[in-house]
Amino acid sequence: MSEMFDARRWKPAPLLPRRDPRDGSLVFVVAVLCFLACLTAIGALAADRAAHGWTSQLTGSATIVVRASGNETPDAAAGRAAETLAGVKGVAEARALERAKAEALLEPWLGREALLDDLPIPRLVTVDLDPRAPASALALDKALKAAGLDATVDDHSLWIADIERGAAIARWAGLAVFLLIASAAAAVIGFATRAAMAAHRETIEVLHLSGAQQKFVVSLFQNRFAKAAALAGLFGTAGAASIGALARLAGGGQGLTPVLPVAWTDLLAIAPTPLLAALVAAIAARVAARGLIGEMA
Amino acid sequence: MSRNQDAVIPGEPLAGPILRFDGVGMRYGRAPEVLKDVSFDLAAGSFHFLTGASGAGKSSLLKLIYLAERPSRGTIEMFGRDVESVHPADRPFLRRRIGVVFQEFRLLEHLSAFDNVALPLRIAGQKPDHYRADIAELLAWVGLKDRMHALPPTLSGGEKQRLAIARAVVNRPDILLADEPTGNVDDAHAIRILKLFVELNRLGTTVLIASHDEDLVARSGQPVLHLDRGKLTMYGRGVGERAG
Asked: What is the pLDDT of residue A248?
């Protein structure tokens, strides 16, 4: 066997052993962390999209409550209000809701029996605003007053503020959870680096005493853990992407549900996770390795 | 090139000693000094033994030379420069000029004999094409021609010793240090290893061998530095005549 060694074909072997029993556990833990981080990112993106959808629906419309006055019937007042608003600049369309629709809206709160024929139910006018230059609530109110109508304009600003606040909370919570998971991954990798360096202390000392610069030794560990984390990131991302794709397919055109609409682009957004995991791992391993070599020196 | 690299990479021949200890003391932590007021000069190209009983400070003195430890007092000059003045980032370049044969070999067990010898050259950034043939020749020279692929755990004590020597000299160091290089081998192997050191010395390498094998030292006829409980008590011929 010894005669078979051919120095001309020799290639340098890795300075750290190719396999380490601890690598499997590390890859598993980092893969799970990447999986959770990706799911968090997909959830945050979907929540953000849902909030934007609701906000754009609400900002693109207004609801007018019209009360009849004088001899005018509620339906006539509502019809006049719709006509008046249709002529306001920034209004795309205005429609008066019939009594039946107004009653249907009140029925859940008042019950069928309470909706007497002589109950003065206000009429509603729904207004679709021009998305490019929507009319303001003030402009609508002015137009209604000028037409002598007793009406209240609801531009949904109260709901929009709540939704935007909710969306912001979802975004920041998603980011916070993502950063928390990334920090946990970094801590795990830092710990693994220290454990690996302790296990390879003899190798490091020999390299050190043979004239290896700190960056040479650090790069060995940095590259090793970056590769392990990239592999783990690949597994974690693939797992999360599968869940995301399932949610998208199961939910049809609107993703899982209209509440959490997953888009195919969300799956692209998590694609850089293996690279990010490798970067976090490289930094964590670098910091840990530099600290240990500094202690050794 | 960084600050002190000019001073730590080989350049012009030295006018003075290659190594100078001046009033050097050394302690581990807060323990009592293991080396006390050690002073000596080694001329470039010289060959010395470092003797003394176990615990006399031989390994500690070698550690100071190969920059694994720092003195608690005194001055060490190497290649004409105070080593304490060398920036930490440039110390690796100084270490590359010193070959060390460790008492316990310190071979990397997951690397083949060939890879172990290649290690200092890889660290120095040399391309494999430049040194493949040299390593094969060196391994043949130390009698390991047929063991190039072998992993250290499969080698005998004598083979490990010769492998460690090959690794220490592969980048042609200016100083070669060996800590008890014959401690784990029989007399025949000890003589063979000693001949290797003598040949290296003839090629211009300054050699310092720590050994407690008084017979071997006596038979070699080389000058001696003797340590007794941390103090340098005797010089052999050819050593700088400064008080220890």
From this structure: 81
CA distances from A68 to A65, A76, A205, B139 (A): 10, 8, 92, 107
CA dihedral A283, A289, A293, B1 (to 10 degrees): -40
In chain B, which residues have their Cβ closer than 8 Å to the Cβ of A213? 89, 92
| Other residues' Cβ atoms within 10 Å of the Cβ of residue B151 | 16
- Beta partners for residue B232, in sequence order: B227
- Residue pair B227/B20 in contact (Cβ under 8 Å)? The answer is no
CB contact under 8 A, B122 and A1: no
State how far residue B237 is from chain A, nearest Cα, in angstroms: 31
CB contact under 8 A, B147 and A2: yes
Distance from CA of B241 to the nearest CA of A (A): 31
Distance CA B225, CA B12 (A): 28
The pLDDT confidence band at residue B34, using thresholds 50, 70 and 90, is very high
Model's pTM, two decimal places?
Answer: 0.70
Between helices B157-169 and B187-202, what is the axis angle to 10°?
10
Say which of B67, B106, B132 has its CB closest to residue A7: B132
Q: What is the pLDDT of residue B238?
A: 41
CA dist., res. B241 & res. B41, Å (int) = 8
Helix (H) or strand (E) holding B119: helix B113-123
SS3 B137: helix
- Checking if the pLDDT of A149 tops 60, the result is yes
ipTM attached to this prediction = 0.86
Give residue B242's pLDDT band: very low, low, confident or very high (50, 70, 90): very low
DSSP string, A111-177: -TTT--TTS-PPEEEEEEEPSSSPPPHHHHHHHHHHTT-EEEEE-SHHHHHHHHHHHHHHHHHHHHH
In residues, how long is chain A? 297
B9 touches chain A (CB under 8 A): no
A209-237 tens-digit pLDDT = 999 998 898 898 889 889 988 999 999 99
> What tens digit of pLDDT does each residue of A60-111 get?
888 888 888 878 888 888 889 999 988 889 888 888 887 777 777 777 777 7
Residue B237 has pLDDT above 60, yes or no: no
Contact B114 A7 (CB under 8 A): yes
Burial class (CB in 10 A: 0-12, 13-18, 19+), A232: buried
> Domain map of chain A by residue range?
19-55+161-296, 61-133
Do the Cβ atoms of A124 and A65 come closer than 8 Å? yes
B110 CB neighbours in chain A (<8 A) are 13, 17
Q: What is the pLDDT of residue B124?
A: 93
